[in-house]
Design goal:
heterotrimer, A mainly alpha, B alpha/beta, C alpha/beta, B: alpha/beta, 7-stranded mixed sheet, 13 helices, 14 strands, 43% helix, 16% strand, C: alpha/beta, Rossmann fold, 6-stranded mixed sheet, 4-stranded antiparallel sheet, 24 helices, 58% helix, elongated
Chain lengths: 289, 391, 575
């Protein structure tokens, strides 16, 4: 049973981490984020379903179209809901991204339908049995892909010149601007990347969670919790927090009860923030006087 | 401040302008549907809508009611939120002047609306939510009627099937953590106690949970020889998938919720052998109304066949419910709520309906048209629903 | 005009049950009222102190369940149960605020979201008390018309309480904390404490709304109080206009009625709702009321200054010989780099003590240690007999140390007179309940505060600006206002951080005159950090020179000017 709980926990946890990384990326570049990031998870799964099942395309072209579509979705969110309020003091971007989320979810419901559909995957046909428990190969694939992507994003930020430019924006926008970095474009790129990561999570989870217009809400919310307890500024912290949250959830559901899962999970979120107000691996910003 | 005043004025004008103008005699007779048509349970609202609409089309094709008034369906979204449910209940009655209202899936919404029907004297026809105390609500006179399952009867039926037909002695309960699950927990415990059988455990899960194997493992370790499940299709599918994951071939008996959605598609061949309760099945030989309904679903909504009907019970219940209301309006000779209510309780003409022949559907004490005598037990087999023998 | 508007509004609202028997309109009206009560409270938290909560549905739920359990279970009278519900929600609010307000921004949003989810979870799980997911039935309820009138009366009352609160020392403290936390703390306000009070009040309002919701419907269940509900509260507030008194009413009205107008669209309804929200955010970034009414400062009008405004009372300098401030061996390091080392300075109870040095010498760091913003790594700071080091800034301010900042930290949303009033009141905000009710004692004190701030502004030549927002002040006057505000706290020691930065020659001459007058009329001791040498040499009694975090010279202006080390430091730094 423990093995199984660990596998389930790691699979979900790595996806929380992946989606949470999306919050991190846009937050550090622009001090804004898409509060309805969960809809990007849903949109990824829905578009992939539309291509793969609806139109009957093979998996790879479907994936390519999905990622391109979601990059466009991210840019659209940035242009419509964030850019007009960029670096203003008002929390208008919070409202506008929520509004975009409402529109996206209900448009999906109109186009995709109201009931959950199965996303076929060769990796969820037969479970692997280990002792008294078991898991689907997909559940093993998810954390592997998730962690590879995280590593890729880190590589992009630390080793490639464009990534370093984005990081410079995150570090000091004014200086980056002086260095000739086009900040609005950097923010747009951050939003595109963030939506793409969410889409990957959506596609990976689709065979397990099924595809539905409302599937993103809870994942988006828990990913937000993960991004916060990991420390919005700290990518490694977010990955650690994501895996930890997934495991805690799975273990609480396994050994206590499902009802206790959300209560314990979110109580831990509060506890972590009381002990480490800026997240597990985040650092307190020095007070400027 | 001035602006707030003008805003208030504007809102008042907008609200009253959008109100329906008073109805002349030949105006349509409106029927309301207050159900979830957005959010996670939207499919249930869609299914109920189809059942009512097809019945309305049939009635209108025969010239409508009360000397030629056509019926018209007015749909409102309750979003699964009780407060919203109360608002739209009042709106349907007060602004749209509906003659009767159909209800949706959420037991909590239906419970919150009960006082409104009583206060506004409007008949309510439950087409889905099975919570026992919706129809048995203690109000006099009672405006709530139901052509749907009643958890209390359903639980007796499920208990009997598990204990008598399957001859199992150690049932484990697996319930969704909602008002509906709670209603069934009460019912199942009551009927198991009556049979002096002890359950081996009660496990719960939340909506959208991806993995139910811990709950199943606990039941397995407790020695359950049958699992009685109360779930809707998405979660029911996860239960079946998790059952395969832990390699446990335990028989499963389910309440009807798993038929609301694409359970077979979501589970593949894992669903084979899962038995569940229905008020009606579109598989197999159909009576006259069943054939007509299938054809109408195909023509109007592009439904390819029985396996493509997303929530068959919602459609079937709503279809019969609509015809019963039409008969009551005809008998009362009026769309007045109190008169229609009285007519529903004392319907003269027998109605040969889709699910059964109702004679009579309701009495003063019995507001559930369907009881466990009318339920059928079915199993999934290769993505189709096949009736099974019960005793 | 404004009053007539409110009267017409009240007549329309309370006349509705007479005009129509349509229970739908009454119920929608009651829903507007319930939303107004919550958002009026949320306005205190979000509009005034600038903190966001996405968990207020949790407080609504606590109010609703307490009211229901106390009436159904314990047989309490509904009115008593409602009061208990408000108290209960506020009590939980204190605890949540204590944990939540240690963080801000998205972190705070998360803590409040988590709180809301935990409440929902407990309501579902604790079946014995709450009835579980099925909820509680048969809560005694009034007729709909009665319920409507009660709710409207409470909503009107809520708006009135918030208006009173805004026009009290508490209201100014809330806005001050949002505008500039450091400045508020330097005036003796604990930002944490002030925000906890705001959070608690808003939780109480939400509890009231929840209790009324329970009585209106007679039935409650957990699914009325989810995250979506919390989001709706915030949307309504932001939509109506954050920080304005009528904003919560306007936002609640539109966000309740608008969905009703869209109901017949069913499947397209929520898409349209989202689109309308989005477009309105473009056109009304300040919310409905903000856009329609323009920005109007809600503060008090400063009273005309009494003719011959006497300078402020002599501070409580005991005239004791020896040092007022004693800095002994203070050191501090940032990231392993020593910013200050072994700094010892003694400042007497009167006179002007300048601290100079090249850029990066550690002058401002020293000032931040003296005012409690930094805690020294070694050494001690004492003011008289009291230890300064180790205390938070607001506690240091309460010891009698006031300060200004390199870039003036004014409370931009408050008027100039209100800025000064924040300084005069300091930590003495009074009874918050009295402030909400507009008690006579509170009003008398407001008049006194207005007079005092008017007098201080007149003396500083800022009288004509008194009722303008501080943001409108020209640069030179901003600095002057900051000094007036600091002096309004009646400090024994005033720390000035580069007061001459950005001033022209005339203004500098005025500053020299003002500081000299302050010294000669028994004002507080002054520590002056300044680059402008003419100013320093003209008015300082004593000068300490810092370089690379160490004291390299100390003495009278003449002595310092001739000190070889000083000359070298400045020449070396000049390149």
């Amino acid at each position: 049973m423990l093995v199984q709980l660990l596998v389930t926990g790691l699979a979900l946890g790595s996806m929380y981490g992946l989606v949470a990384l999306g919050y991190h990326i846009t937050w550090v570049t622009s001090r804004t984020m898409n509060f309805a990031q969960g809809t990007a998870v849903m949109a990824g799964a829905v578009v992939a379903y539309g291509c793969h099942v609806g139109l009957g395309w093979p998996l790879l072209p479907s994936l390519a179209v999905t990622l391109a579509a979601l990059a466009a979705y991210g840019i659209a969110i940035e242009r419509i809901a964030v850019y007009p309020f960029f670096r203003t003091a008002s929390p208008a971007w919070l409202l506008s991204t929520i509004a975009c989320g409402i529109i996206a979810e209900n448009t999906a419901m109109l186009l995709f339908g109201k009931d959950a559909r199965a996303f076929p995957s060769a990796l969820t046909q037969q479970p692997i049995l280990v002792g008294g428990a078991g898991f689907y190969p997909q559940e093993l694939l998810i954390p592997v892909v998730g962690l590879c992507l995280v590593a890729g994003v880190q590589y992009f930020y630390h080793r490639t010149s464009y990534g370093k430019q984005l990081k410079a924006v995150a570090w000091n926008a004014e200086a980056a601007s002086l260095m000739g970095i086009h900040i609005p474009r950097a923010v747009m790129a951050a939003y595109a990347l963030s939506a793409v990561l969410a889409a990957v999570a959506g596609v990976l989870l689709a065979p397990i969670l099924n595809v539905a217009a409302t599937m993103g809400t809870i994942i988006g919310l828990k990913a937000f919790a993960v991004a916060i307890i990991g420390g919005l500024e700290s990518a490694p912290g977010i990955i650690v927090a994501g895996l930890a949250y997934g495991l805690v959830e799975s273990l609480v559901a396994g050994y206590l009860s499902t009802g206790a899962r959300e209560i314990v999970g979110f109580a831990l979120v509060i506890l972590v923030l009381i002990i480490r107000p800026w997240g597990l691996l985040g650092s307190r910003p020095t007070r400027r006087v | 401040m001035r602006y707030v005043c003008s805003l208030l004025l504007a809102c008042a004008v907008a609200l009253s302008l959008s109100a329906a103008s008073p109805a002349p005699a030949a105006s349509p007779l409106k029927i309301g549907l207050a159900a979830a048509v957005s959010g996670g349970s939207a499919a249930s609202g869609e299914a109920i809508k189809r059942g009512i609409q097809i019945a309305i089309d049939e009635i209108n094709a025969k010239g409508g009611l009360l000397g030629g008034r056509k019926l018209e369906l007015v749909i409102r979204d309750d979003e699964g939120n009780p407060a919203k449910g109360v608002t739209i209940a009042r709106e349907l009655v007060e602004r749209e002047k509906v003659a009767a209202v159909f209800g949706g899936l959420h037991t909590t919404v239906a419970l919150a609306q009960v006082p409104v029907w009583h206060e506004l004297k409007t008949p309510y026809m439950g087409a889905w939510a099975a919570g026992t105390n919706i129809a048995q609500n203690g109000k006099k006179p009672n405006y709530v009627f139901r052509v749907s399952a009643n958890d209390d009867y359903a639980d007796r039926y499920l208990t009997r099937y598990a204990l008598d037909t399957l001859k199992k002695t150690k049932p484990g309960l697996l319930l969704e953590n909602t008002a509906w699950g709670q209603s069934n927990e009460v019912g199942l415990l009551k009927w198991l106690a009556e049979r002096k059988v002890k359950h081996v455990g009660i496990e719960k899960f939340n909506w959208n949970d991806p993995d139910m194997s811990p709950q199943l493992l606990r039941l397995k370790n407790a020695g359950a020889d049958v699992v009685i499940m109360v779930a809707n299709a998405p979660e029911g599918a996860q239960v079946v998938k998790s059952r395969a994951k832990i390699g446990w071939a335990v028989p499963m008996v389910a309440h009807w919720g798993i038929s609301g959605g694409r359970f077979a598609e979501l589970t593949g061949d894992l669903s084979d052998g899962v038995a569940f309760l229905q008020t009606y099945s579109f598989f197999g030989k159909q009576n006259e109304r069943g054939q007509a309904l299938l054809k109408a679903l195909k023509d109007k909504y592009g439904v390819k066949g029985p396996e493509d009907i997303i929530a068959p019970v919602g459609t079937a219940n709503a279809y019969d419910g609509m015809h019963l209301i039409a008969l009551a309006v005809a008998q009362a000779g009026s769309a007045d709520g109190a008169k229609v209510r009285d007519a529903l309780e004392s319907l003269q003409a027998p109605y040969a309906g889709l699910i059964k022949t109702y004679k009579p559907p309701f009495t003063a004490d019995q507001h559930d048209a369907l009881t466990d005598d009318d339920y059928i037990m079915v199993v999934w087999k290769g993505g189709k629903i096949v009736p099974v023998a019960t005793k | 005009m404004r009053r007539i508007g409110w009267i017409i509004l009240a007549a329309a609202v309370f006349g509705l049950p007479l005009a129509t028997a349509n229970t739908y309109y009454l119920y929608v009206g009651a829903s507007v009222g319930l939303l107004t009560i919550v958002t009026a409270g949320l306005n205190i938290l979000t509009g005034f102190t600038g903190q966001i909560s996405l968990g207020h549905a949790g407080f609504c739920a606590i109010g609703a369940y307490l009211a229901a359990i106390l009436t159904v279970g314990a047989g309490l009278h509904p009115a008593a149960a409602a009061l208990a519900a408000v108290a209960g929600a506020a009590a939980v609010g204190v605890v949540v605020a204590g944990a939540a307000l240690r963080v801000s921004g998205p972190y705070l949003a998360m803590v409040t979201i988590a709180f809301g989810i935990i409440v929902e979870g407990v309501l579902v799980e604790w079946v014995g008390l709450t009835g579980g997911p099925g909820g509680i039935f048969d809560i005694p309820k009034p007729t709909l018309a009665q319920g409507y009138l009660i709710i409207c009366a409470v909503a009107a009352c809520a708006l009135w309480l918030v208006r009173n609160l805004r026009a009290s020392p508490w209201g100014r403290a809330f806005l001050a904390v949002r505008s500039s936390e450091v400045a508020a703390e330097s005036l003796g306000l604990s930002a944490y404490f002030v925000r906890i009070v705001a959070f608690t009040i808003s939780a109480g309002f939400a509890g009231a709304s929840g209790a009324l919701f329970a009585f209106l419907n007679g039935y409650i269940s957990p699914d009325s109080f989810g995250l979506q509900t919390s989001i709706l509260y915030l949307l309504a507030l932001l939509f109506g206009g954050v920080g304005t008194v009528a904003g919560p009413l306007a936002g609640s009205l539109v966000l309740t009625v608008l969905p009703e107008l869209l109901t017949s669209l069913v499947d397209y309804r929520l898409i349209l709702y989202g689109l309308l929200l989005l477009t309105s955010i473009y056109w009304l970034p300040a919310g409905l009321v903000g856009a329609l009414a323009g920005r109007r400062a809600a503060g008090f009008a400063a009273a005309p200054a009494p003719p011959a405004a006497a300078p402020s009372d002599a501070p409580a300098a005991e005239g004791q010989p020896g040092a007022l401030l004693e800095v002994a061996g203070v050191g501090i390091a940032f990231g392993g780099v020593a910013a200050l080392a072994e700094v010892s300075v003694q400042v007497p109870a009167t006179g002007i003590h300048a601290i100079i040095g090249p850029n990066g010498a550690g002058k401002t760091t020293l000032l931040n240690i003296l005012s409690g913003f930094y805690s020294p790594g070694s050494g001690t700071v004492r003011l008289g007999r009291e230890a300064v080091s180790g205390r938070p800034p607001y506690a240091v301010a309460r010891l009698g140390i006031a300060r200004t900042f390199q870039t003036a930290q004014l409370f931009g949303d408050l008027t100039v007179a209100e800025n000064v009033a924040v300084g005069i009141a300091g930590r003495r905000l009074g009874n918050v309940l009295g402030a909400m009710l507009g008690a006579p004692a509170v009003r008398r004190r407001e008049r006194r505060l207005a007079e005092e701030s008017g007098a201080l502004l007149a003396a500083a030549g800022l009288a004509e600006w008194a009722d303008r927002p501080a943001d409108a002040l020209p640069a030179g006057s901003r600095r002057r206002l900051e000094i007036v505000r600091a002096l309004a706290t009646r400090p024994t020691l005033l720390l000035l951080d580069e007061p001459a930065a950005g001033l022209g020659p005339t203004e500098i001459r005025e500053l020299i005159a003002e500081l000299s007058a302050l010294r000669d009329h028994g004002g507080p001791a002054i520590i002056l950090v300044e680059h402008h040498m003419d100013l320093v040499m003209a008015i300082s009694d004593r000068i300490t020179v810092l370089d690379y975090g160490r004291v390299i010279a100390e003495g009278s202006p003449g002595e310092v000017r001739r000190h070889p080390g000083v000359i070298e430091a400045y020449l070396g730094a000049a390149g």
